[in-house]
C-alpha cells in the first residue's frame, strides 16, 4: 500500500511539473536583435510600435522580443517591466500585454 501511494504521489508530481513546463513554454518569448535598416522585411517593423510603451520598434540596435504564442513584438525592457508589474499584482506575468490577444489566446 505504501509503495502504491508513493508511486501515485510521484506520478502526480511529475504530471503537475510537466503541465507547468508546457504552460511556461507556450507563454515564453524569444529574444532577437532587430536591425531595421539592414534586415529584410524591415518595412514591417518601421511602422510598428511597442504596445507597452507606445514607442516605435525601429530604433537602431534595439532589442526586440517576440512572444512565442502570438508573435507580438515588444521592447525587451518593456516586457520585463510589464511582467514584473503583473507579478507584483499577483497576476500571471506570462500573458500578452495586448488585451484583445490576452482575451482570445489565453
UniProtKB/TrEMBL annotation:
SMART domains: RING. The keyword Metal-binding applies. The lineage of its organism: Eukaryota, Metazoa, Ecdysozoa, Arthropoda, Hexapoda. The keyword Transmembrane does not apply. Keywords: Metal-binding, Zinc, Zinc-finger. Residues 50-98 form the RING-type domain. InterPro entries: Znf_RING (IPR001841), Znf_RING/FYVE/PHD (IPR013083). One of its GO terms (molecular function) is zinc ion binding. This is RING-type domain-containing protein.
